Amino acid sequence: MTTSRTDNAAAAPAAAFWTDLEQALGPNGFSRGADAIPPKYWTDWSGTPPVPPLALLRPRSTDEVSALLRICHAHRVPVVPQGGLTGLAGAAVPVAQGVAVAMDRMQQIEDVNARTGLMTVQAGVSLQTVQEAAVAAGWVFGVDLGARGSCQIGGNVSTNAGGNGVLQNGMMREQVLGLEVVLADGTVLPMLRPMLKNNTGYDLKQFFIGAEGTLGIITRVLLRLRPAPQAKATCMVALPGFDEALAVLARMQARFGNSVAAFELMWSDFVQTSMQWQKLQPAFAQQHPLQALIDVDGKDEAALRAAVEEALGEAMEAGEVVDAVIAQSSEQARSLWKLREAPAEMTAHMHPPVNFDVSLPQVDIGRFAAACRAAFDARWPGHHSLFFGHVGDGNLHVTTDSQTINGEDEALEAVLYGLVQQFQGSVSAEHGIGLHKMPYLGFSRSPQELAAMRAIKQALDPLGLMNPGKVFAAD
Amino acid sequence: MTTSRTDNAAAAPAAAFWTDLEQALGPNGFSRGADAIPPKYWTDWSGTPPVPPLALLRPRSTDEVSALLRICHAHRVPVVPQGGLTGLAGAAVPVAQGVAVAMDRMQQIEDVNARTGLMTVQAGVSLQTVQEAAVAAGWVFGVDLGARGSCQIGGNVSTNAGGNGVLQNGMMREQVLGLEVVLADGTVLPMLRPMLKNNTGYDLKQFFIGAEGTLGIITRVLLRLRPAPQAKATCMVALPGFDEALAVLARMQARFGNSVAAFELMWSDFVQTSMQWQKLQPAFAQQHPLQALIDVDGKDEAALRAAVEEALGEAMEAGEVVDAVIAQSSEQARSLWKLREAPAEMTAHMHPPVNFDVSLPQVDIGRFAAACRAAFDARWPGHHSLFFGHVGDGNLHVTTDSQTINGEDEALEAVLYGLVQQFQGSVSAEHGIGLHKMPYLGFSRSPQELAAMRAIKQALDPLGLMNPGKVFAAD
């Protein structure tokens, strides 16, 4: 995969840069030169070719982040912020003329308030640690995704992470009540007041959520937790078509409101492949065009299961559902969910996989998937592509075995993103733009919007030092 | 009440300005001069002294908004956007050297999708019209407030309106899936893609929500509707103190999750005054320090009432609740809610009232209210002040009879906002800054945050033409 990089062609920094850094961070606070920097900091999970940075800085506090940014600003040295390096778009890959700032020494959970469901953490805390601390306090955290053990909350905020809970809880943006951010010149913005309602000028913190490190470094996050559900019902339904899937979703939401926690749709290619890879028993005797996994929260297991059964019965009578299985235990629920876990096997089976993360107007997802498949069939007969997604929130994933398209990954991207543009969708639902989707950003954003984004960037980072060459080309 | 106005001292526009406007809007598209402009456009509900604008422009389309802004930009004429003029902070009051742009000819509901719960409207549609269209499509709209019949959705977005549904549905920001905005130079930003998940660069629309018209004019809004609840239970509880109120809220949220739709707390002064003004029967035989009105959504009336009763029984055993009444019909529910409606009577009874809309870290609201009362008692013995609020979301309202503080409104504001600053609260929870809270913005925002806001303003409106002198002084 090629990427269009625009590294700032900065001159090598003066000797004073290094002595200033040593004074600010201490001799153990940074490593200088490729030999001294572990290769894990050279790239992320996106498969981008590794780039050793000029230096790796490892601050321990907001003051140190502020100091190092002041120094980089004074010496015009580009800065790439790094979280858990699990990003799939390349946003955290270093630039050769700049420093990487790893947040992995800022891992304090500073405060958990069990009464109000608020938690303050440093940006380097892992998502899983946040989730566990929430549960320990009697709450849950609203965002979950596969990289939970490695990804950091600062990175989750910077990419406005999505994952499995979006239908019920929204994206990361909706879990963030406050942020502390350090701007490119070292200015600290303390936007941490713990109020749900705070209309005092622009809601500045919104600007940094999803900015992929191009506007500043997030140092602390005030999180809003969600009440823990007491019971959960899980079911798998067989569906005759996409319109019926939307009808079932609407039916479940009408009945269970915001308690519908997941609605994961899987096309039959995905279902068959997942069963084969994981040696699963089929949930239904026959194959169906689509299957959906549905989770509903409630108060009482038995009553909830009965209510879900009743709703599905009505859906069957209405012709929306052909067959259905309701898990009778949490073990059965886990077993139903296993079918959805094929993505963990893709790297091993798909030579390697070409992954897409797009979103579309919900009503159009079925037509979009059909159009994609037809376009792929026409050009690459025999291609192996899997369609699945968090359809409740408009997010579709498509994964293709690159061997079955003769390694023509870029052509495949052009076909798929072209259709996204045609359907007025988003080329990035939850992974961000980073490096890899920069060529396609214009498919989902007008020139006017891109110009406004550049004006914001220029306003908050006039020297263009923060994560240069990511999201949109500097000009 | 004094205000610090910073009207742009623009010279009178050239003759070409008027011919350009006539060409763009037609002869009926604008009115010129105080005699031709109805006084209702001269001020809003904030009580700010009326200011007739240079002209009142009444565009019928996004194209006309774009054209008029291009013209004002070319002639350096300031622009004040106007919605329903129900704001309480003065943000929509005209400036004498500028034009007012009324959105009341852009009242189309363009699309309602009953299947996906999405609605696209022009900015001038009233909140009530949106609510009714949502219900007609089998959904509900998540924001409600007293001015629903007059306020416009564009104004609701521009002030990030709150109201009664915030605990369950969030502020206006969380109902907005897309926006169309016209910038000061006439550039149209079409940010209307109907996806919940869309991480393609900065989430530009967030910048305009709550910006009070200082960054551009909102012309169209894509709204996300909420599933309609099937049943509702309403109860009134008597509480021994504030900590117990929070314990009950946490207990209800743990049991009913996001189905807790309202948690309105009223201090006993409010309760007594409201009963007296409205000639209501007391809900409880004895007076209590606090009463809370709680609404819970559910599927089945009887089952829900039983579950609420059980939860309240447990709260009584735990000593959190002293007494409780559960409405047995929607009529009884309305009757319980009547107690909360005293604010509609305030203007008639409080000579006039001095209103505050602040928010605080939830755990501190009780201590804050006590500190306020003590400070008022010390300086104005015999003052009549009412404390109440949407405590579930941290929002406290305080209203004082100005006659009982000898008309010393400004001194009262200084005392209360000083305490807000001390408690690290927000001087505006849901009404915005406008003109009236500008002197206190620095109590809730650091100089660094204000500088960042000014940089954003400068980036998107370099000539400073959009709603000048509002939110923060231009410099």
TrEMBL record, chains A, B:
> Some GO term, biological process aspect, for this entry: which one?
respiratory electron transport chain
Keywords from UniProt, A to Z, are: FAD, Flavoprotein, Oxidoreductase
What are the recorded GO MF terms, alphabetically?
FAD binding; oxidoreductase activity
Q: Which InterPro entries match?
A: FAD-bd_oxidored_4_C, FAD-bd_PCMH, FAD-bd_PCMH-like_sf, FAD-bd_PCMH_sub1, FAD-bd_PCMH_sub2, FAD-linked_Oxase-like_C, FAD-oxidored/transferase_4, Oxid_FAD_bind_N
What are the FAD-binding PCMH-type domain coordinates in residue numbering?
48-228
Pfam name, any one: FAD-oxidase_C
Which cofactors go with this protein? FAD
For this chain, the family text in UniProt reads: Belongs to the FAD-binding oxidoreductase/transferase type 4 family.
Output this protein's name: FAD-binding oxidoreductase
Origin species, per record, is Comamonas koreensis
